Amino acid sequence: MGAVHAHRLYVHGHSVVHRLPAECKLVALVGFVFTVVATPRTAFAAFGCYAVLLFALIKLAQIPAGFALRRVVVEAPVVVFAVLLPFVAHGPQTEVLGVGVSEPGLLAAWNILAKATLGMLAAIVFAATTEQRDFLVGLQRLRVPSLLIQIVAFMVRYLDVITDQLGRMRVARESRGFTPKGVRAWPALAKSGGALFLRSYERGERVHLAMLSRGYNGTMPVLSARSASLTDWTCALLLPGLAVLVALGGWLL
């Protein structure tokens, strides 16, 4: 597979969270996200507790708070959709800052925004404390099909390569005086997208041929790493366990 470099979301560290096996963190992440999603949207205190748990985890993992918060910007389309819901949804009306909005739409917007943000923060913590190789090992330990692991491995490995290629194409356009403004720029951007697709496809073919020449037979070598102990599982499942207790409190109260 070649050398596996650290991805851009990874934050080098030696915290307890960094040392946990990837399979433990992945199960904890899925458990926490499912618990947050299952929480009733009117349990406002529960969502506050989830946020406290996540920020405590960020502190424990020694991840700069600014680093985590900047990465949450990726959910901007979700934020835009949530902001529009109170104005387009039907139902009883209420006033917020002197503006009439739909109560069901307001609750739906809160539900989407809160759960998406908490899930995004949890995923950022996982990505910031897990290297690529450890992530692939974790998938193997969890008995994920080999074909899916290979797809994920190549996607992660060559995502930076494609991004760099896109950056070089942007520099080439700008060096020729191209400025992407208005509808007139769309044909040029579409052609750039097509060229990027063709170059990526050709690169994939060359990589596949190189792998075949080195004996690739459809399966990747099994990666090895430290096995997860009972202590590792206990530490990792502490977060979703506390989240389940908070969710139960939200349902009962």
Question: How do the helices and strands line up, and which of them pair or pack?
Answer:
Blueprint: H1 16-19, H2 22-38, H3 44-60, H4 65-71, H5 76-88, E1 93-96, E2 99-102, H6 103-128, H7 132-141, H8 146-175, H9 186-213, H10 230-236, H11 238-252
Antiparallel strand pairs: 1-2
Helix pairs in contact: 2-6, 2-7, 2-11, 3-6, 3-11, 5-6, 7-8
Ends apart, CA distance between termini: 52 Å
Query: What series of H and E elements makes up the topology?
Result: HHHHHEEHHHHHH
Radius of gyration: 22 Å
Count of helical regions: 11
Number of individual domains: 2
Provide a quick synopsis of the model:
By secondary structure, this protein is mostly helical. The protein has 11 helices and 2 strands.
Describe this structure in words.
This protein is mainly alpha-helical and about 250 residues long. It folds into 2 domains: about 15-130 and about 225-250, no CATH class; about 140-180 and about 185-215. Helix content is about 70%, strand content about 5%. It has helices spanning about 15-20, 20-40, 45-60, 65-70, 75-90, 105-130, 130-140, 145-175, 185-215, 230-235, 240-250, and strands at about 95, 100. A two-stranded antiparallel sheet has the order 1-2. Helix 7 (about 130-140) packs antiparallel against helix 8. The longest helix has 30 residues, at about 145-175. The N and C termini lie far apart (about 50 Å).
